[in-house]
Design a protein that fits this description.
About 45% of the residues lie in helices and about 20% in strands.
Length: about 220
């Protein structure tokens, strides 16, 4: 659903009459880390493996196109990136965001040194949502855990956005949508840019811009 909305926004906002030149990065094999999946234990583990395999470089590009997902799995991703930057003080992580919602939004704000969006890229954040069942005491205990995690996330993200915690929480009550330049204006991104894929990457079906499974020729 989220990626469908991204495509619709892209079509609505694209205007051939307005040509705004943005820096273009060409993605090639081995030159970036991709994350274009729901956030879960398996996808987070793949990301961590891929990130650690390229983090010997002084600069890492991360391509993100994700509707979000499990917070605990996403926090593992954040901590691995932060730890890598502490271990290698010169390491700089640039994230190109096609779309990022929920936990993916948190990742962009907490792990990326530079946050780059395309003119029609989409960010979205909302209040934490969850369901719990079990014995009342266990539900209460779990609620304490979730409250601690959400409080930490809200403090960290609101600081990156230049908002008070209270203002940030008010802003995301009914889903906070940001597209392209609007995200830059609200300090949720640093600048606009563009990416494309090399011919080799596209032919090998590894270009992250191709987000749907294509029929075999």
């Amino acid at each position: 659903m989220f990626r469908c909305l991204a495509v619709v926004f892209s079509l609505l906002l694209a205007s051939p009459a307005v040509a705004v030149e943005q820096p273009v990065v060409v993605l090639e094999k081995g030159s970036f880390v991709r994350f274009n999946d729901d956030v879960n234990s398996s996808s987070a583990s793949r990301f961590i493996r891929d990130f650690l395999s390229v983090s010997e470089s002084d600069s890492v590009l991360v391509f993100i196109d994700s509707p979000g997902g499990d917070v605990l799995a996403g926090l593992r991703m954040v901590e691995v990136v932060r730890s890598a930057k502490i271990a290698r003080p010169g390491l700089r992580v640039t994230c190109f965001v096609q779309s990022a919602a929920s936990m993916a939004f948190y990742f962009v704000q907490l792990a990326c040194d530079e946050r780059v969006l395309g003119p029609t890229s989409i960010l979205m954040q909302h209040q934490a949502s969850l369901g719990m069942q079990g014995k009342w005491g266990e539900v209460q205990s779990r609620s304490v855990l979730v409250t601690q995690i959400v409080d930490w996330l809200d403090r960290e993200v609101s600081a990156r956005l230049g908002l008070s915690v209270e203002k940030y929480r008010q802003t995301i009550v009914n889903d906070w949508w940001l597209v392209g330049q609007n995200a830059v204006d609200n300090k949720a991104a640093d600048r606009l840019g563009s990416v494309t894929c090399s011919v080799e990457l596209a032919k090998s079906a590894e270009c992250p811009l191709i987000f749907a499974t294509l029929p075999k020729e």
